[in-house]
Design a protein that fits this description.
Length: about 400
């Protein structure tokens, strides 16, 4: 079996590629770099920060509960490895922007099991933290995407790592009670980190109780895949709070979004990546299910949109509460089922629909720029019956910025 490298007070970069595969006990690294197979002992103080070197790791890494770790560059888990993060761990990133991130490659896993009392926090290490000071968390899987054909893969915006495939049930591990703060560092105008970037992540991955806070780009973005996310919070992100593209067909259940002074959309939803095109054959489009979502804006006078639906996206929304926006839904596309952007066709066919929704302080509920003709009641039913999500209950204790 692979050795579990439980990170001690030495800089782990010194050990990269030095660990062979064998059947010894877990390896623990102490502050003087002496290796002890001591069955789990660690003499370091919980107040000390433990450095994790920038590298692509070919062996498993385990971060001990209630410890603080630092990263100063890309930390990439290679195929076949597992990054285990126990509850109460804080990971501080040096504030140099896009080149500092954690990436879980295709075929690798992250097991991040926090709790409401002891969440896992990934944040900026700057004494004055601010949005965009580091990258964020990137998870790459083998589930379908529509920016390629068949079993081909695409590459991520940051790190140029492969993602996509044919395994809808692909398992990239567990994210539970994980908060990502001050992320979104940009490499350039088109390559930007998010809080959580899910590239072709499959439905076998457990993702629940996650928060993106004060990010410079999107809070949570799905690049295709079939991921099923429950209890997701995005607060004060400066671009879109939740974004999907490249044929995302998973689900989002119980989502809470709250805008800060700098922001864009609550949801930005694309059927495919407009920078690449829908290359799938036969073609498929994004069509996730969103259930129990609350989106809180800054008021209808601010001229913003809660949910933009474009580039042929489809989707089923149920039990939604939208408060404080100039526009509730803005639908963009081209007329006709055979167009490049058949967003309106989804409404006509019942593949893009909203059931049980309440608008509070929303000027325009639905704006149709698709070129197709349909009524608001074709798109929305059960108006006034949406209650959103019970964020006050499930978001207690582990979230910030409420």
């Amino acid at each position: 079996m692979k050795n579990n490298l439980v990170l001690g007070l030495a800089t782990i970069a010194l050990l990269f590629n030095s660990c062979a595969t064998d059947d010894t006990a877990d390896i623990y690294i102490t502050d003087n770099s002496v290796i002890h197979n001591n069955g789990g002992g660690n003499t370091g103080s919980n107040d000390e920060e433990i450095a994790i070197g920038a590298a692509e790791y070919s062996s498993d890494l385990t971060l001990e509960a209630n410890r603080t770790y630092t990263i100063s560059g890309p930390v990439i888990m290679a195929e076949g490895t597992t990054l285990t993060i126990n509850e109460g761990v804080t990971i501080k990133a040096i504030a140099t922007g896009a080149d500092v991130y954690i990436a879980i490659s295709q075929g690798a896993k992250i097991i991040a099991n926090g709790s409401a009392e002891k969440p896992i926090v990934m944040t900026s290490g700057n004494s004055n933290p601010a949005a965009g000071q580091w990258g964020g968390l990137i998870v790459l899987g083998k589930a379908p995407i529509n920016s390629v054909t068949g079993s081909a893969t695409s590459t991520s915006e940051i790190g140029s790592l492969p993602y996509g495939g044919t395994d809808s049930a692909d398992n990239s591990g567990v994210l539970r009670y994980v908060r990502v703060e001050y992320s979104g560092g940009a490499a350039d105008g088109s390559s930007e980190n998010n809080g959580f970037s899910f590239y072709g992540v499959g439905a076998g991955t457990t993702i629940e109780y996650i928060q993106a806070y004060e990010g410079a780009d999107d809070g949570i973005e799905f690049f295709g895949g079939t991921a099923e996310v429950s209890y997701a919070v995005v607060i004060n992100c400066q671009d879109d709070s939740i974004d999907w593209t490249e044929g995302f067909t998973g689900s989002i259940t119980n989502a809470y979004i709250k805008h800060g002074a700098d922001h864009d959309k609550g949801f930005e939803c694309d059927g495919y990546n407009t920078d690449i095109g829908n290359l799938s054959n036969p073609k498929f489009w994004s069509k996730p299910t969103v259930t129990n979502a609350t989106i809180v804006g800054l008021g209808s006078s601010k001229g913003n949109e809660a949910i933009r639906l474009r580039a042929g996206t489809q989707g089923i929304f149920n039990n939604i509460l939208i408060e404080g926006f100039a526009e509730g839904f803005d639908l963009d596309g081209d007329a006709g089922a055979n167009s490049d952007n058949p967003t309106g066709t989804g409404v006509i066919n019942g593949d893009l629909h909203v059931t049980n929704i309440t608008f509070i302080d929303v000027t325009t509920k639905t704006k149709n720029d698709t070129g197709d003709t349909f009524s608001e009641t074709d798109f929305i039913s059960g108006e006034g019956q949406g209650t959103g999500t019970d964020y006050a209950t499930w978001g207690a204790n582990w979230t910030v910025g409420n």
